[in-house]
Design goal:
Blueprint: H1 2-48, H2 58-81, H3 84-97, H4 102-114, H5 126-141, H6 145-156, H7 161-181, H8 183-191, H9 202-208, H10 218-229
């Protein structure tokens, strides 16, 4: 009996190690593919600068220079404050909760609690609720490989020139999408010079379907927050 349990435990341990190894291999593969794509994006963006030598494409050149400067400003805030993810999420939730009544905030909080989600909001004003929800969401994002990986790479300066410029191109494309999906949120980020940093959290917003509608019901807001926390 003891020998049988020992064999079973060994088999289970082998399966667990194999599963962990598979996940590790997939993770490394994804990182390699992402790095290659980013370098290609960087090289593509550098070729766009040839438009600066052509009179007919000065508008393209001006857009590139503006995006580069904006990215540099956002990167400076990231390195200086190291709370870029919190700021990006906080600005979004400020817009969401701006005109919510006490009763609506109470409903949203109760629904989240019933779903087993922790909401750190002591008082139900729009400001305190924004702080509580933002803190709770950011806690969950601390375990997101995509978000953590991008922040670490940018803050730590571990990417080369082509890799960094690849991030600039990804950020520019992400900002353009946001401008179409949610002009209000885009403008709010622009005022803080953070529009080119949105790409860091864009996967989270896509997963949560945060811009599926121009206006959301309280139930839809609950679902968005729930998806962000998962």
């Amino acid at each position: 009996m003891y020998e049988s349990n020992l064999i079973i435990n060994e088999i289970q341990a082998d399966k667990l190690m194999a599963l962990l190894l598979d996940k590790a291999v997939v993770g490394v593969k994804d990182q390699i593919l992402e790095s290659i794509a980013r370098i290609e994006d960087g090289a593509t963006r550098l070729t766009y600068y040839t438009s600066c030598f052509t009179d007919n494409y000065q508008d393209v050149c001006s857009k590139l220079k503006f995006e580069d400067a904006r990215f540099a400003e956002g990167l400076y805030q990231l390195i200086r404050d190291r709370q870029i993810v919190y700021d990006l999420m906080s600005i979004y939730f400020k817009e969401i909760f701006k005109y919510k009544t006490y009763q609506q905030l109470e409903f949203i909080k109760e629904q989240l609690i019933q779903m087993g989600l922790n909401v750190s909001a002591n008082s139900l004003t729009a400001e305190s609720f924004t702080f509580g929800i933002t803190s709770s969401v950011c806690l969950g994002l601390g375990f997101s490989p995509v978000v953590v990986g991008r922040v670490r790479a940018l803050a730590g300066g571990v990417v080369g020139v082509a890799g960094l410029y690849g991030y600039v191109q990804q950020a520019a494309e992400s900002a353009d999408r946001l401008k179409l999906q949610s002009p209000i949120y885009y403008n709010a980020l622009s005022l803080r010079k953070l529009d080119m940093m949105y790409f860091i959290v864009e996967p989270v917003f896509i997963k949560a379907r945060a811009f599926q509608h121009q206006s959301f019901s309280d139930v839809q807001i609950v679902n968005i927050i729930s998806n962000m926390m998962k």
